[in-house]
Amino acid sequence: MVVCIHDRSSIYRVPLALEEQRLAHFFADRLQLQLPDIPARQLMWKWRQLADRHDQMTKEVTIALVGKYTRLQDSYASVIKALQHSALNIHYKLHLTVIEAESLEHQTKATDPVKYYEAWQSLCKAEGVLCPGGFGDRGVEGKILAIEWARINRKPFLGVCLGMQCAVIEFARNVLRWDGANSTEMNAECAHRVVIDMPEHHGGDMGGTMRVGRRTTIFSDKYPSELRQLYGDVASVDERHRHRYEVNPEYVEAFNEAGLRFVGQDTDGQRMEVMELADHPYFVGVQYHPEYLSRPLKPSPPYLGLLLAACGKLQSYLNRGCRLTPREPGSDFESSDEEFSLIKENVYHKVAEN
Ligand SMILES: NC(=O)CC[C@H](N)C(=O)O
């Protein structure tokens, strides 16, 4: 059998092209798979809608990704895909600006002012800011500056893993005025150890020093949470992890009282998994990596929240019980009613797959 796939308008057209050539049927026959419905018609229908939507997007939303492995864009492949899935589901084309965190730091102003001002200009132009995961101290101060800017200027922000840890450090230094607050990953001797090693980090000589894999986060009833609403107002979510450090539980109450609220914990209530800043359009940090479970038809809720907030649509989406607006004259979302329920159904409420 010869399968021909000519260039398509997007990658989302490839499964449709394969299906036109009945590839699934071919394999089902050859391998004698007793599959009842190939391919699942509902799924193909949803997929076609997605591909059509991709070709019809006219509006753009700009998100700044403030990272440190920016020369190797593949390092952030899953983060970028998760942003694209969310943008696609709300009918916006993603315009991604990748900013090298170190370029935002004060010393770059002296050594390479062009780079410094260009980086700041890119950040200021963005409608939302994403700080992804990472390891080691290079670029951390630049990330903290970007987060401070997003907090003060009320720009939607999502911090993932190290990104959340940096948001905690920023808040400790600039709001709580704890000079020298840091993570022990960056400075083990710092004055306020707001992010500390977890016991797993010292697992002996056998390796396996990270807390990894799918784990449950329980939402607390103590504070309202936009992220919880985005997940469908569930009591808990399962997401994947990959870290060695955690928010120091000793300081949690001080953060909560000052408005940086830890709204999700692990099953023992000890590890901080989700933080949200009260009185901000969207300022969310997650210790886990929600991008790993984002899918084109099931955008990850923390990413979807960032994109909706960046487009100024988050509040109306939440007020509608996590639905996009129905078609009305002047509506920003050009969707049919069928599509709204589809999007709602698709958004990841509770993770059902690995
Ligand atoms: N994946 C990450 O972002 C890890 C964050 C941090 N370096 C830690 O180990 O906890």
From TrEMBL:
Name of the protein described by the UniProt record: CTP synthase (glutamine hydrolyzing)
Occurrences of domain Glutamine amidotransferase (ranges): 72-302
Any one GO BP annotation for this protein: 'de novo' CTP biosynthetic process
Keyword field: ATP-binding, Glutamine amidotransferase, Ligase, Nucleotide-binding, Pyrimidine biosynthesis
Entry GO terms, CC: cytoophidium; cytoplasm
Keyword Methyltransferase in record: no
One GO MF term attached to the UniProt entry: identical protein binding
Domain of life: Eukaryota
Substrates-to-products reaction catalysed: UTP + L-glutamine + ATP + H2O = CTP + L-glutamate + ADP + phosphate + 2 H(+)
Record family assignment: Belongs to the CTP synthase family.
Organism: Medioppia subpectinata
Annotated metabolic or biological route of this protein: Pyrimidine metabolism; CTP biosynthesis via de novo pathway; CTP from UDP: step 2/2
Alphabetized InterPro entries for the sequence: Class_I_gatase-like (IPR029062), CTP_synthase (IPR004468), GATASE (IPR017926), GATase1_CTP_Synthase (IPR033828)
Membrane spanning residue stretches: none
Enzyme Commission number(s) from the entry: 6.3.4.2
